[in-house]
Design a protein that fits this description.
The protein is of the alpha+beta class. It contains seven helices and eleven strands. It has a six-stranded antiparallel β-sheet, with no helix packed on it. A five-stranded mixed β-sheet has the order 4-3-5-6-9, with no helix packed on it. Strand 1 and strand 2 form a beta hairpin. Helix 1 packs parallel to helix 3. The termini are far apart.
Amino acid sequence: MSQHDYPELTDIAPEHEDASIQVPAPAQEPEGAVLELVERGHRLAMALPVYAWPCTIGRAATNDLVLTDPSIGPSHVRLHQPEAGLYEVEVLDSTNGVWHGRRHYSAGERFAWQPGQRLTLGRGVQLNLRSTAQPLPATQRWRPFSRSQGLLTGSALVLLVLLSAWTTWLGATETGALARQLPAILLWMLGGLLVWTLGWSMMGKLFTGVTGFWRHVCIASVGMVAMALLDVLLSVTGFAMSWPLLSRFASLASFSLMAVVIWFHLRAATLVSARTLALAVGGLLVLGIGAKLGLQWQTQKRLGDNLYMSTMLPPEWRLAPTTSVDQFMQGTDSMREQLQNRSQLEKDDDEEGDDSGLD
């Protein structure tokens, strides 16, 4: 058989074996996107994947994304994708229009919408646009409240009770004062812990949708124990080594530790990054310490909080070498001079105040 017997085959078969057939390229499919409905500024309420364009949003059941807020129109907006990676918003028959950043768009207007930007519909319905071509952010680590954290919380509470009993015993001036004062101190302490934890839990529910009550209890109880241990450590070390600065500036260390505790609470109650929270809390800590030192100097002419050895400790805890009588008398002389100078400054301030009042 030759190709002359079937001449129609010559129109189809190639004349050479290496000839290729040109196949038309398939049409490019539209790029998909995800519409994210955000509540209260942070919490994601709903996500709708979109692969067909245009996409309509409104209260009517015929829309692709149906919203029930009464400030949303029956067909509020229509989303278009002119080409891959580009999105446009068309405002339809809408009474309240659309806010894009600081600009408001009314019915009939059309504008570009970039992924990552927020769109506000009606009286506060917020939408985010995320393209499927965008890389996803790293998965946030989530660890539920474990048995080890429960043991840590229980141990911290027991240690907190023991520390409260010990400090009450040190400050007692008469027999039986510990039994009378300790119940009231424990009641105030546990009540304050409960109120503090409930406040952070409500904040977590507001911004993340999760209360995290026991996590905040763990953070607060461990923080209280750490601050109590720090205060005891500074007081005992200052007494044992005769370093009064540790006792006078113990509150600054407590403020710094409190800032760390607040940072942990904010990490559990918000979705803000750890770096941003650290910068904000650190800035507030610096301002607070500066204001406290300035107020302390203005009112009492000293930067320290209290006088050295405001609480007497057992003498056998003293590790510093003993001071001779002559050295002690020299110290009292310098102290007397400081007190006289302070008294003279206060007298001069009072006289200036009286003179200004007469004028």
